[in-house]
Amino acid sequence: QMQLVESGGGLVQPGGSLRLSCTASGNILDYFDIGWFRQAPGKEREGVGCLSRDTDRTQFLDSVKGRFTISRDHDHITAYLQMDNLKPEDTAVYYCAADRPYTNQPICAMAQTSYDYWGRGTQVTVSS
């Protein structure tokens, strides 16, 4: 059973950057699509972005396009969410998730129901 642990959250000023890490144990992330999600207080959890296992193509929520990127580390067990030009509305608990598609999929999914493995989240607060 794979487990995921997020790290790298914290308090940052508007316009600043953070890099969140998602570290896996029990399996390697090369076999999985990676999804990042967030949940702000009083709101539903939403998909932020994802990275395809098979093509390395990414998808992002419109409000973060051009500011967030997702990548994998060469260590095979870590994925990252790089967040630049952060805004107060990016404040949320951020979760990483992993999905192992049964067939080759050129595009990753942004739907939460597609993901089987989840971390417990890390808090990101953007405030001056």
Beta-strand residue percentage: over 45%
Low-confidence stretches: none
For the residues shown, what is the average pLDDT? 96
Instruction: Please trace the helix and strand order, writing H or E for each element.
Output: EEEEEEEEEEE
Helix/strand class: mainly beta
Question: Helix proportion of residues, in percent?
Answer: under 10%
Biggest sheet layout: 7 strands, mixed
CA(first)-CA(last) distance: 40 Å
Question: How many helices does DSSP assign?
Answer: 0
Task: Work out the number of β strands.
Answer: 11
Please give the radius of gyration in angstroms: 14 Å
Please tell me what the overall shape is: globular
Description:
This protein is mostly beta strands and 128 residues long. It has no helices and 11 strands. Strands 2, 4, 5, 6, 9, 10 and 11 form a 7-stranded mixed sheet that branches. It has a 4-stranded antiparallel sheet with strand order 1-3-8-7, with no helix packed on it. It is globular and about 45 Å long. The mean pLDDT is 96.
